[in-house]
C-alpha cells in the first residue's frame, strides 16, 4: 500500500484566515506518500507567506509540497491546473477552508490498493456557521443525487482525469464531473467513514433567495445533459430549497 502515491490539490486565493488549518490537516496525515499541490490564484494577502512556512515541515515528513501562484479562470480552472501538476496514483481535492481527518489518506490508499477504484468518496462532517455539526452520509445507488456524494472527500484515479475535467462553467462543475463518471459506468467506491470536515457558509453554501430559481435550473440542466429523466426536476427543487434553508441556520 505504501507504494501508492497520493496527490492532494488545494486551490486558494486570499485564504490567509483558513489555509493554515487546511495545510496542517494534510501535514498531519498518518500516511506519508503524499504530494501536496497548492494552486494559488494570485493572492495579495499573506496566503503565500503562510504556505511557504510549511515547506520544510513537509520535507521533514517525507512529503512533497509544491506551491504554484498564477492567474486562473476561477476555482475549477485552478483545480484543473492543479491536477495537471499531479503525479500521484490518485488525486484528492481539498478546499482551503476544509480539513481531512488524520487517517483519510491512509484509508483511501488502502481502499485503492484493494479495489483499484476510478473514484471514491466517503462521509463528511458539515460545520454550520453556528458551530453545530452533523454528518452527511455517503451512498451509492442507482438513483443519482448529489445528496449521496461529498466532493471534499472524493479521490479520483489520476488517469481518469485524462478524460474527465471540470468544465469551468459554474459552481456546480464538481457535481457535473461526478455525474459524468457515474453515467459512464466507472468503478465508484463509497467509504462510510468521516473523511473530511466542510465549513458551510462559503461560495457554494451561502445562498441569497433570489438565486434559488437559477440554481434549480442549473442543477436540472446538469441532470438532463447527463441523460437523466425530466422527473429529476423534483429532486432539484427539493435539494435547493433544503440547501437554502440550511444556509440560514
Give an overview of the whole structure.
Strands 1, 2, 3, 4, 5, 6, 7, 8 and 9 form a nine-stranded mixed beta sheet that branches. This protein is α/β, with parallel strands linked by helices and 249 residues long. α7 packs antiparallel against α8. It folds into two domains: 6-206, Alpha-Beta Complex (Spore Coat Polysaccharide Biosynthesis Protein SpsA, Chain A); 207-249. It has helices spanning 19-27, 47-52, 55-60, 75-85, 104-115, 173-183, 212-225, 232-247; strands at 6-12, 34-40, 64-69, 90-93, 99-100, 119-127, 133-136, 155-157, 188-199. It is built from eight helices and nine strands.
The strand count comes to: 9
**Total domains:** 2
> What is the CATH topology assignment of the largest domain?
Spore Coat Polysaccharide Biosynthesis Protein SpsA, Chain A
| Helix count from the secondary structure assignment | 8
Query: Overall pLDDT, averaged?
Result: 93
